[in-house]
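Run: sequence + 2-acetamido-2-deoxy-beta-D-glucopyranose -> complex structure.
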Amino acid sequence: MFLSDVGCEVLASMLTAVIGWLSESRIMLFSLKKAVLASSWAAFLVAGKAHGHLGSKPNFIFIITDDQDLHLNSLNYQPAVQRHFAQQGTFFSKHYCTIAICCPSRVSLLTGRAAHNTNVTDVSAPYGGYTKFISEGWNEKYLPVWLQDEGYNTYYTGKLMNGHSTTTYNDPFAKGWTANDFFLDPNTYIYYNVTMQKDQDVPVTYPGEYSTDLAAERSLGFLDDAISKDAPFFIGVAPIGPHAETISGSFNPPVPAKRHKDLFPGLKVPRTENFNPDVSSGASWISQLAQQNQTVVDYNDEFYRARIQSLQAVDDLIESIISRLEKDPLVYENTYLIYTTDNGYHIGQHRLAPGKTCPIEEDYNVPFFIRGPGIGKGKVVSLPTSHTDIVPTLFTLAGIPLQAEFDGEPMPVTAEQLQDTGHRSEHVNLEFWGDSIPEGGYGGSSSKNNTYKSVRVIAQSYDLAYTVWCNNDHEIYDMKSDPGQMNNLHGSAGEVYGWDIEKLTARIDGLLLTLKACKGAVCTRPWAKLHPRGDVLSLSDAMKPAFDDFYVEQQLKVTFTACKEGYLAEFEGALEPVAYD
Ligand SMILES: *[C@@H]1O[C@H](CO)[C@@H](O)[C@H](O)[C@H]1NC(C)=O
Ligand SMILES: *[C@@H]1O[C@H](CO)[C@@H](O)[C@H](O)[C@H]1NC(C)=O
Ligand SMILES: *[C@@H]1O[C@H](CO)[C@@H](O)[C@H](O)[C@H]1NC(C)=O
Ligand SMILES: *[C@@H]1O[C@H](CO)[C@@H](O)[C@H](O)[C@H]1NC(C)=O
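>> structure
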């Protein structure tokens, strides 16, 4: 039962009895084994003051780290995440960002739109950054603005997005925040000299103070303010860890808090099958990379260790938020907490320098935890979900009607919602434009044509990854037998899951063609666009031999005519699929 329901019932009983405890409501409360709740309720009665959070919309605390991997096991070194999220909440093991770079991913997350619909596709102008967010009009229509319209107080501390800087922050101010203390460029990624910008004040730089600790302190201040007010709240907390320390375009290992600088001696990047392999892998420029020598591998291991160290302050931040919430059990019980990151990260897989941006599982499959009223504890959900689903999910939890323009759909997060997930789709659309940005001391030049379209198809009995690059290289992997993406099946004869590879590729290409420029419901129900009769709902339905000719011969293909730095539709071949008769 949700706390809000309890609150309403208690309130109703209170009205009946005028004052004091009804034995019935007492039993009801204790039957929930929440004695602590009862004492807060008693305190409420004594104070005789209406508590705004009781029976109202739920609160949200949204913690988003920067560049945190799932596949390099960073979560294994975060006991606070394990204790307060994995054990107390639900983990979505197949949660994806849809564009593997900070600013576009954050804008997509905050608007509920795919990057091809925000057209904020890069970290800086002309194709991205804060100024593009403004010029595309998203400052008027994104999460905090919508939540304020619904009566929420909204708070944010940490990094909002790239290009939000000491010169752009007030031109105009980011809208929708009751209070904020943002990290601003160019010092966003300087752990011990961050520049912050509170409300509409001028920016202040904090030499010698640790940025993640500053974000933790601001979150607690916001929490005090939010709890003292008579309205539901949203607090966004966006520390920089474990992003590289970035000064004037050079990406160095992250700097941990001084108290953590000696932890995890000898820790190394997990030596998975795709780590610095003897045989090159991947496609396009990735397949050209040379194997890393020991000097580079050692450097990358240290880089990895610094990332894990930098995450320890994030763990401290989580502990302090939870401790503060524990002092207000009624608020705590009506608050959803989410832990995620903007995009994933790789170090050494496929011989890659540290970084993100690539169409590989490490860069897209990211941590996502949620806990709160009605959410299962210690549960793992393996349905595919993505960052475009987050706003629809929050809206649903808050009882706000969904917008037709959302490109995602609510994630089934509560035990109740998870009882009926049969209707959910099985794909995630991934996209990228522009350069890959190698990080660290041995990254080399950054001019790599890294524009591509990609799709993941994940069902109980199959799991596939498909990519078309702007040089028209193709990749298709069976992610069940080859999770490291070492064996590109594209163009090979033979079968996977009992399906002919060529015929299978034709279906997935048709799916990708439908998704690459989709809007709204087409993004969540692409097969309905390909098969308007409604008889195909999944890849396995589309594999029927009756559709061989339609997909192999008649369907248009995903192609590029050049590699461009942004979303220039005229270089992206067909934008719409042909529908089956
Ligand atoms: C901190 O950043 C400010 C603003 O960019 C700069 O002027 C100052 O020299 C930096 N301080 C240190 C200790 O690096
Ligand atoms: C290892 O590779 C790096 C990057 O290519 C190069 O700079 C360095 O000289 C190499 N070191 C050795 C010992 O070969
Ligand atoms: C990137 O793509 C462009 C346009 O397709 C091409 O002219 C250029 O040579 C490519 N650059 C590299 C480094 O491959
Ligand atoms: C995206 O933005 C760029 C830069 O402003 C523009 O040139 C391009 O046409 C836009 N793409 C679409 C599909 O609107």
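>> summary
Confidence is low (pLDDT under 50) at residues 1-54. The first strand starts at residue 59 and ends at 65.
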